[in-house]
Recover the amino acids of this structure.
């Protein structure tokens, strides 16, 4: 029973953190110029790093989210996702404190997610839970488990 509960919680956590990463990455890729402008407005990075960061982040979000959802390289993808969520939380904290942006550019031009202590806390909590997920053994409902069986 305990194993099933852990498996279920791990799956729900992978879904709850992977889906937003895939959607956010996809939306930013679809509206790249808008995303690059939002990142520049945030003034979180030196101007010469805005373009490369704007180009790299959506793809990273998409790939990491997809690997979480599929359970592929689950420990590495959970660890990288934890880092992403922590960076998002810190960035949102800076934006909230400075008032540089009132809404998060998380999910593309149609996103009106307000930056608030609640949205920041959710990202910190997701980062912490993903660290726990990275420490868990390979879940049954994961591609890693299929590849482990093939290697035997």
């Amino acid at each position: 029973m305990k194993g099933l509960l852990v498996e279920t919680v791990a799956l729900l956590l992978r879904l709850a953190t992977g889906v937003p990463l895939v959607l956010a990455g996809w939306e930013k890729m679809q509206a790249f110029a808008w995303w690059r402008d939002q990142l520049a407005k945030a003034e979180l990075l030196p101007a010469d790093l805005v373009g490369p960061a704007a180009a790299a982040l959506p793809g990273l979000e998409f790939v990491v989210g997809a690997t979480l959802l599929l359970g592929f390289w689950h420990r590495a993808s959970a660890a990288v996702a934890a880092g992403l969520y922590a960076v998002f939380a810190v960035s949102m904290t800076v934006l909230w404190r400075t008032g540089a942006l009132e809404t998060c550019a998380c999910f593309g031009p149609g996103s009106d997610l307000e930056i608030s202590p609640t949205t920041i806390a959710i990202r910190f909590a997701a980062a912490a839970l993903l660290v726990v997920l990275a420490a868990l053994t390979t879940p049954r409902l994961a591609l890693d488990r299929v590849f482990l069986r093939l290697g035997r």
